[in-house]
Amino acid sequence: MNKIKTTISAFFISIIAMQPYHAQAQIDVAKNDLAEVYKSYDRIKYLSFDVAYLYSSDTLNGDFTHSEVKGSYQINGRNTLYKLGDITFMQNDSILIGVYTLKKLIILGDPQTSALKGGIPMRDQMDSLFKMQEQYYDVTVSSKSKYTTISFKGLESTAQFIKYEIVYDNNTNFIKKLEHSFRGITDKDLTDPSMEDSTRHRLAKEIRLKKLTISFSNYSHAKIDKENFDEKNYIAYDNKMYKPAVKYSDYKIYDTRKKK
Question: pTM of the full predicted structure?
Answer without folding.
Answer: 0.81
